């Protein structure tokens, strides 16, 4: 009887072991299936992410290969005896980025001329060097690039007049020395990139963006009586005297500039840099101009004038008729000599009649720039007037 009970117990134990073996095998198989499913899911997610990165890279490359923005330039002496402004336009000065600058000289023209010749080269060098840095924030990287570029440009302007051009330029400066302390220039620079607009300003020239029909200033004038600038000058031991307007020590009507070593450290060359993301659906155009325009024309009026010119040009093109210029009877007096060469624009102050597919020069933008210039002259501006109009509507690739 005992033997029968032992056999029954042994059989039951064997059955339980068999069930456990089967259960363990089933759980291991299920675990393997789950792990395989998880592995396949991870592989699928990695492949999808890779495809997205490739697609985004293709989009970025397409944007970088997009044609340069259309622009127009004019620069006139106005009622001044001498032309002291310089303008620079350099499409694709680095891959996918386009440089525009307006430099308003004072005391003489050679610092503004040097800025027109050298600033885009310095910015390109600093941007190339910053491309390999560990800074991932594009806005912070561009601020650093612009600050270093302005510091280098100021050092060249203060150090020697012939550093930038290789020979002292011909000018009417009363101090024909390698170093000229009483000469300087404002500098407003815009870099139009595929994703961002970078604007750096030092002085009282100005950049204004028209976006969604609104005039948006991208720079603030550096006037000595601006509260923060006034406080900075006083903290450095300087004074602001009101002599035909607020002036540093009664002499210079701006608190920041390239050059002017005789007023340092009260007049500094540090730019204020603003980086804004481009909005293709809203951004229309960008205006860069010297204070000869902004002294007599408001941001809003300037944007209305440019918008009307671009709209009329677009309508004429759509109709397929002769696109007559609203400024065809205007011939503002242009800068001459080295200023024209530094500016890099045509003798008549406008771009060619063609749309300038290669260079980006555009008749409608040039008409708008000329019209703004004539408006400033009609309103009795006493200064040189230089204007750059950049159309921010992207052009389809041909």
TrEMBL record:
<keyword id="KW-0460">Magnesium</keyword>
<protein>
    <recommendedName>
        <fullName>protein-serine/threonine phosphatase</fullName>
        <ecNumber>3.1.3.16</ecNumber>
    </recommendedName>
</protein>
<dbReference type="Pfam" id="PF00481">
    <property type="entry name" value="PP2C"/>
</dbReference>
<dbReference type="InterPro" id="IPR000222">
    <property type="entry name" value="PP2C_BS"/>
</dbReference>
<feature type="compositionally biased region" description="Polar residues">
    <location>
        <begin position="324"/>
        <end position="335"/>
    </location>
</feature>
<keyword id="KW-0904">Protein phosphatase</keyword>
<keyword id="KW-0378">Hydrolase</keyword>
<dbReference type="InterPro" id="IPR015655">
    <property type="entry name" value="PP2C"/>
</dbReference>
<comment type="similarity">
    <text>Belongs to the PP2C family.</text>
</comment>
<feature type="region of interest" description="Disordered">
    <location>
        <begin position="315"/>
        <end position="362"/>
    </location>
</feature>
<dbReference type="InterPro" id="IPR001932">
    <property type="entry name" value="PPM-type_phosphatase-like_dom"/>
</dbReference>
<dbReference type="GO" id="GO:0004722">
    <property type="term" value="F:protein serine/threonine phosphatase activity"/>
</dbReference>
<keyword id="KW-0464">Manganese</keyword>
<dbReference type="InterPro" id="IPR036457">
    <property type="entry name" value="PPM-type-like_dom_sf"/>
</dbReference>
<feature type="domain" description="PPM-type phosphatase">
    <location>
        <begin position="70"/>
        <end position="392"/>
    </location>
</feature>
<keyword id="KW-0479">Metal-binding</keyword>
<dbReference type="GO" id="GO:0046872">
    <property type="term" value="F:metal ion binding"/>
</dbReference>
């Amino acid at each position: 009887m005992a033997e029968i009970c032992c056999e029954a117990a042994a059989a039951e134990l064997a059955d339980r072991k068999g069930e456990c073996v089967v259960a363990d095998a089933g759980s291991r198989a299920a675990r393997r299936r789950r792990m395989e499913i998880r592995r396949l899911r991870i592989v699928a997610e990695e492949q999808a992410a890779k495809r997205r990165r490739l697609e985004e890279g293709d989009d970025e490359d397409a944007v970088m290969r997009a044609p340069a923005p259309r622009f127009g330039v004019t620069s006139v002496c106005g009622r001044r005896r001498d032309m002291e402004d310089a303008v620079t336009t350099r499409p694709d000065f680095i891959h996918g980025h386009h440089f525009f600058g307006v430099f308003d000289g004072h005391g003489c023209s050679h610092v503004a001329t040097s800025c027109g010749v050298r600033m885009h080269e310095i910015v390109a060098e600093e941007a190339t060097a910053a491309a390999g840095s560990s800074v991932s924030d594009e806005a912070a990287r561009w601020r650093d690039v612009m600050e270093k570029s302005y510091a280098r440009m100021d050092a060249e302007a203060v150090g020697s007049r012939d550093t930038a051009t290789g020979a002292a330029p011909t000018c009417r400066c009363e101090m024909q020395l390698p170093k000229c302390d009483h000469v300087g220039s404002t500098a407003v620079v815009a870099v139009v990139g595929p994703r961002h607009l970078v604007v750096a300003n030092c002085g009282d020239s100005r950049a204004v963006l028209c976006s969604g029909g609104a005039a948006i200033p991208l720079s603030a004038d550096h006037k000595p009586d601006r509260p923060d600038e006034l406080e900075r000058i006083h903290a450095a031991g300087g004074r602001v005297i009101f002599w035909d307007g607020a002036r540093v020590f009664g002499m210079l009507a701006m608190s920041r500039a390239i050059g002017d070593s005789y007023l340092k450290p009260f007049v500094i060359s540090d730019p204020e840099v603003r980086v804004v993301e481009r909005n293709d659906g809203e951004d229309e155009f960008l205006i860069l101009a010297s204070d000869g325009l902004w002294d007599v024309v408001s941001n809003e009026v300037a944007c209305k004038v440019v918008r009307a010119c671009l709209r009329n040009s677009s309508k004429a093109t759509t109709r397929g008729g002769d696109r007559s210029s609203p400024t065809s009877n205007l011939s503002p007096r242009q800068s001459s000599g080295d200023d024209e060469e530094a500016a890099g624009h045509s003798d008549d102050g406008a771009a060619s009649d063609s749309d300038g597919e290669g260079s980006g020069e555009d008749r409608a933008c040039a008409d708008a720039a000329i019209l703004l210039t004539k408006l400033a002259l009609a309103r009795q501006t006493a200064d040189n007037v230089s204007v750059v109009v950049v159309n921010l509507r992207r052009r389809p690739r041909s």
